[in-house]
């Protein structure tokens, strides 16, 4: 993540273009959107440890290629950075559903929400350190050497993972029919009406929110007239809020109705996001922007973390790969669609207007979730069904 942020700082500093940042973010999300439904059935069948290790090897190889290119040509071609971001995203498309499908095979059902919260805390801790450290190292170390951190981290991660025992699903004897399994995953998700509505609402939220989320560096450096260091500080504050949110879930996560905090989170993300776009474009506005980002950060983990726990409880482990593949695709596909318009809109209307649009849209998603009984009562009915099965 340090390397990822360093690349973003590089693109922001060198181009100052909202369109370039949008394209970079799209390339980071598109493989997840397009490939996830087809990757899901493979996750159900292939060796889980290999699916976690191979993406790290791919990321390390790409880092070496990018570093050598920067050293030889004394510049990083934008097209090569885009290719690197795309390939890293393809690798992560295999890794994410693998981690999500492994958790319920190693964790009791009643602890899933808390464990997902604790996993969110670890990820948030990474996100606190990465942007600030990325900005600091970007200022003192040439990018061609900074990129090689990917290689070091891949080696460390693989060495640790080799010793971990990861359960695989029971052998599936039926022939792999990719489109059939994907279709089955879509049907299973659509059949579960409450979860389907929650997924669609999450996809709409992603459509409206991602354009603003991709513009954080420009919001700080262009609208608030800040520095790379301040951009890293904002990312660290947001991630610090996420760490607090993950801690709340990890410690007190066994709620009787997890949809209540999910719905509240929509409002706690939407209102501060909308207000951020109305702040004055100076350092006073930046201070309020920082405070609002802490509130957003605290609320952010609730939707994804609690939704993941509900999905893991809704389906048996041997079916989770294809379900998560479809879900990740739906959640991810709307992001690039929004980002296609994000760059031109930000360049035309101003980056701050994307925050106003995202805030209003997120609040509307929260109102919709509150008004639909199948969504609002989903977890209560799920827990009643699980209790009956026990």
TrEMBL record:
Keyword Disulfide bond assigned: no
Main location: membrane
GO cellular component, one term: plasma membrane
Gene Ontology MF: a single term: transmembrane transporter activity
Top-level division of the source organism's lineage: Bacteria
Entry keyword set: Cell membrane, Membrane, Transmembrane, Transmembrane helix, Transport
Membrane topology (UniProt): Multi-pass membrane protein
UniProt cross-references to SUPFAM superfamilies, sorted A to Z: MFS general substrate transporter (SSF103473)
Residue ranges of the TM segments: 20-43, 50-68, 119-141, 147-166, 195-216, 236-255, 262-280, 286-311, 323-342, 354-375
Cellular localisation: Cell membrane
Domain Major facilitator superfamily (MFS) profile intervals: 1-377
Coiled coil: none
Name used for this protein in its record: Major facilitator superfamily transporter
Organism placement in taxonomy: Bacteria, Bacillati, Bacillota, Bacilli, Lactobacillales
